[in-house]
Amino acid sequence: MNKIRLGVNIDHVATVRNARGENYPDPLKAALLAQKSGADSVTIHLREDRRHINEKDLKLIKSKLKIPLNLEIAATKEMLDIALKRKPPFVCIVPEKRKEITTEGGLNLNFKKDFLKKIINRLKQKRSRVSLFIEPSLIDIEKSKNLNADCVEIHTGKFCNLINKNKNYNQELEKIKKAVNFGNLLGLEVHAGHGLTYKSAKILSKVKGITEFNIGHFLIGESIFMGLDKVIKNFRKIIS
Ligand code: PXP
Question: 12, 194, 212, 222: which is the annotated catalytic residue?
Fold first, then answer.
């Protein structure tokens, strides 16, 4: 069995940097340390409002990183142009609302469908692997396949919230399992991300067919106490 890949999202290193408008902590340093500590890829989300990573970070990290860079972008012309210029090996298309604290849900695949299809094909022509961040919904899995995406990333936020609040998560877990199975059946690579902690990652690592986790907020937060290297190694152990 192939090992499950761990993508480390370092956006919140930039959030801390930007809180003071300083040049530290340095997201590039975090990206290189994540690589050294066993991450399989590094994820950054270039937001329209540049609240964490900016284009200078993207350029630097892309030029220095040896493992794949996974760039998250909204489906806009500006972001498409940046991604085509920088050619990250992985691109994940995510929904974006200016006022949200974080990415609150999966993409609405009925909105700007033709533009989405165009973005996916243009990025694939540049040899980027394209993933769509979606809810665990069979309809959205099928739509992603029809849009010619290589992968889907299942939004695990709802599942993780239930776990954090000690509520029953079985129904949500079933939804995720069905979505993963259906995605695999259609030949899509299926990833999972958002809100993952040690506990939720452990439960989801037992779902057959998920090939990649993308983890940020908890991982960076926990690193304050344990160090990035140790936390990445802990996650590696948990998901393998
Ligand atoms: N995957 C995607 C597509 C995301 O947009 C994000 C961040 O919102 C994550 C994973 C990581 O989520 P978190 O920071 O909650 O671990």
Answer: 194
Ligand 1 centroid to residue 142 C-alpha, Å: 22
Which residue's C-alpha comes closest to atom 3 of ligand 1?
133
**Using an 8 Å Cβ cutoff, are 183 and 190 in contact?**
yes
Atom of ligand 1 minimally distant from the CA of 12: 14
How many CA atoms lie within 13 Å of 32's alpha carbon, on the beta-carbon side? 9
The rounded distance, in Å, linking the Cα atoms of 102 and 121 is 27
- Entry pTM: 0.96
Q: Which parts of the chain have pLDDT scores under 50?
A: none
How confident is the model at residue 30, as a pLDDT? 98
Ligand 1 centroid to residue 140 C-alpha, Å: 18
Phi, psi angle pair for 113, to nearest 5°: -60, -45
Inter-residue contact 212 to 4 (CB < 8 Å): yes
Asked: is 5-239 a CATH 3.20.20.70 domain? The reply is yes
Per DSSP, the three-state class of 70 is strand
